[in-house]
Design a protein that fits this description.
It is built from twelve helices and twelve strands. It is globular, with a radius of gyration of 19 Å. It folds into two domains: 172 residues, 3-Layer(aba) Sandwich (Rossmann fold); 121 residues, N-(1-d-carboxylethyl)-l-norvaline Dehydrogenase, domain 2 (Orthogonal Bundle). The mean pLDDT is 94. Helix 6 runs antiparallel to helix 7 and helix 6 packs across helix 10. It is 43% helix and 20% strand. The longest helix is centred in the middle third of the chain and has 22 residues. The chain is α/β, with parallel strands linked by helices.
Length: 304
């Protein structure tokens, strides 16, 4: 049974290459025929791990290809997720499973509403990767991926064991929303700062007090939302992620460097309205949001 990967960026490319290397049948779905031609001209997908770069000639296709889809990894940007799933919705089998690898929160509900018959599995990952060039991904830090069902009542899919045997560090959770909020908090503490300081993740060690202040407010927000377990040890985990992905350029920094829209609306833009509704003061987060928006405006990029 083939895997289809829609979104050949950093995480999508990383997962696709590892699946292919492990002998799993996998196909890339690219945005359009122009991207498909570019991919084929390059001979495949390149993955750099340490000092080794390998070329994997994964088969690829356009969204309108005729074959059906049983297992889909949706790895596009949060703001593209709803349109992306709509482009292949007619190809989904009735019992299709979709693994959602989007940053932040908000896009997952939009995707699920588009394909109500599919089983949408949400993922929260600390894997580090960045796109060196088109169809060339660099693995920049080992991490763990938590996967869960929105309802939290169904059993994990059998392929979870298969991927674990291939070397994927996967864990099933019955409370994926808490994991996603934890990851959102981690991203809010790291990604905007890498843009403002124009640095890789590891260089944030030089801004430890700024990171600590953000973690304090984010933990308070999680507690106010009734997610106290997700707030515990937040600063320590943020520091651990910074260390584990020290060589990584955050996804938000990569977007800014390429002159592309960021996912700020699904990170700070998702968290701040909740803090306002709860009447929870978060001055450091609000200031961070304002500084980030100003930086995006300077670069001529969307602020949402």
């Amino acid at each position: 049974m083939s895997w289809h990967v829609l979104g050949a960026g950093s995480l999508g490319g990383l997962w696709a290459a590892r699946l292919f290397r492990g002998g799993e049948p996998v196909r890339l779905i690219l945005r359009d025929r122009t991207r498909l031609a570019q991919y084929r001209a390059g001979g495949g997908l390149r993955l750099t791990e340490g000092d080794t770069t390998s070329l994997y000639p994964l088969p690829a296709e356009a969204p309108e290809a005729g074959n059906s889809i049983r297992r889909l990894i949706l790895a596009c940007k949060s703001y593209d997720a709803e349109e992306a799933i709509a482009s292949v919705a007619a190809r989904l089998e009735p019992d299709a499973e979709i693994l959602l690898l989007q940053n932040g929160l908000g896009s997952q509900d939009a995707v699920a509403a588009r394909v109500p018959r599919a089983r949408c599995l949400r993922a929260s990952t600390t894997e580090g990767a960045f796109r060196e060039t088109d169809f060339h991904v660099v693995a920049a830090g080992a991490g763990q991926t938590w996967i869960g069902d929105q309802l939290g009542t169904q059993a994990p899919p059998p392929w979870l064991d298969t991927l674990t045997a291939l070397g994927f560090t996967l864990r099933w959770t019955d409370d994926i929303d808490a994991r996603l909020w934890r990851k959102l908090a981690i991203n809010c503490a790291i990604n905007p700062l890498t843009v403002l300081h124009r640095c890789r993740n590891g260089e944030l060690r030089q801004h430890a007090s700024e990171v600590a202040d953000l973690c304090s407010e984010l933990a308070a927000l999680l507690e106010a939302m009734g997610l106290a377990p997700a707030a515990q040890g937040l600063q320590q985990e943020v520091e651990a992620v910074i260390t584990a992905t020290a060589n990584n350029r955050s996804s938000m920094l990569q977007d800014v460097e390429r002159g592309q829209r960021t996912e700020v609306s699904y990170l700070l833009g998702h968290a701040l309205p909740i803090a306002q509704r709860l009447r929870l003061p978060v001055p450091q987060l609000e200031a961070l949001h304002q500084r980030l928006r100003a930086r995006l405006e300077e670069r001529g990029l969307p602020v949402d």
